[in-house]
Design goal:
With about 375 residues, the protein is an alpha+beta fold. The chain has 2 domains: about 210 residues, Glutaredoxin; about 140 residues, 3-Layer(aba) Sandwich (Glutaredoxin), CATH 3.40.30.10. The protein is built from 8 helices and 19 strands. A 6-stranded mixed beta sheet has the order 3-12-11-6-7-8. The chain has a 5-stranded mixed beta sheet with strand order 17-16-15-18-19, covered by helices on one side. The protein has a two-stranded antiparallel sheet with strand order 1-2. A hairpin with a 5-residue loop joins strand 4 and strand 5. Helix 1 packs across helix 4. The protein is globular, with a radius of gyration of 21 Å. The N terminus is likely disordered.
Amino acid sequence: MSRRLHWLVLAIALVVGVGIGAAIAIVHSSGAPAEPVSAGPQPANPALDPGTRLSGAAPDFTLSDEFGKRVSLRSLRGKVVVLSFNDPKCTTICPLTTTALLRAKALLGPSGSNVELIGVGANPEATGTKWVRAYSRAHRMLHKWRFLTGSLPELKRVWRAYGIQAAVVNGAIDHTPATYVIDSRGRFSRLFVTSMSYSSVDQLGYEMARSLAALLPGHPRLRGAPPLGAIDLLGPRDRVTLPRAGGGSVRLGPGSGPHLVLFFDTWETEVADLTAQLQALNAYQAAAKREGLPPLVAVDEGKVEASPQALPRLLAALPQPLTYPVAVDASGRVADGYRVQDSPWLELVSGSGRFLYYQDLAEGWPTQKQLLAKVRTALKRAK
C-alpha cells in the first residue's frame, strides 16, 4: 500500500452482465488520511466507509493460494465471499484491512463458517507464492483465509476486471484498497474501501460483518457492536498514559516534555530487519541523555498485531534489552492522533504538543548521525 498516496473512490458504476466499470482516482494526501466517498449514507466517523451497494455478477478468475493450490472464484459458490486486494509487502492500509476481515468473521460466530475470506495480491513486484505465504504467516492468517497470486498477466486481468489500479509509484507500491462482498450466488453485494485509520478497524469489521449477516441464512445476530460514531483521537496535545511492555506505564503529551516517538508493529520483521533497527536506537537514547535532546519512546500498534503475545515475544528475543520504553497503543487512537501514515513511523513532538519532524521509516531508517542531526535541526527551527 502507498507510503505517500491514499486512494479515494470517486464513483462506481456496474455494468450488469458485463462486469465492473469503476472510476477510481489517486489523491495526494499530506496529513490526515483520505476519506472514502460512498454512495450510501455517511457514518458519523468520517474515516469509516459504510460500504457502497453493488449489483451484477462478480467476474470469475483462477489463481494460486499461499500453498500453491489453484482456486477459482466459481469454486466458492454456496459461500459468501469477502474478496480483498492486498499488497503482501504492505505496511500501511493492508494490515488494517485484513485485521478488519478477521474481526468481521469473528463477529458472526458459528455462521462465519459460511464465509470465505479471499485476498488477491496487488503488488506487481511481489507476485510469487512466497510473498503471500509470508504475509499470511506474519499476520497469523495461514489457515484463516486464502491469499491468492499468480503470474503478472493473470493478476492484471483480475485487477482490470475489478477496477483495481496497482503500480509502482516513485519506488513504492500503490493500489486501490478495495474489499468486495460477494453473495453465495457469485453476485456483488457491497464494496468497502479502507482508509489509513488504526482506530476505525473495529468499526470497519462491524460494518463488513453487518453486510455479511444480511446475506447469510437466518441473518445471524452479531456478537457485539462497537460505537460507530466519530472517535476521539489522542494527539501530542492530549495527556496520554499507555501500558508499558513488561509492566508500568508511559506518559505522553503536556507535562511529559518533548519526545521522539517511534510507532511500529512486530510483523515488520517480515519486510525489514526490525530487531536490528530497534536495538540501534539504544544509541540515540544514550546520545539524547548526554545532550539533553528529547528522549525516545516506542509505541507498538497493538490494534493490528496478530496476538497480544507478539510484542513480548519480540522483546524477549532481542540480544540486548532496549534502553527506552515500549508502550502499547491498543486502540489505535494515539497512532491516528499522531498522524501515523505508515509503519514504522517516527514523530518528534514538542512539550507543548507541536509536530516538529516526522519520517516514514518504511522508506529507510536514518543512521544515528542523521537522526541526531534531524532532531537538532527540528528543535532549532522550532525556537
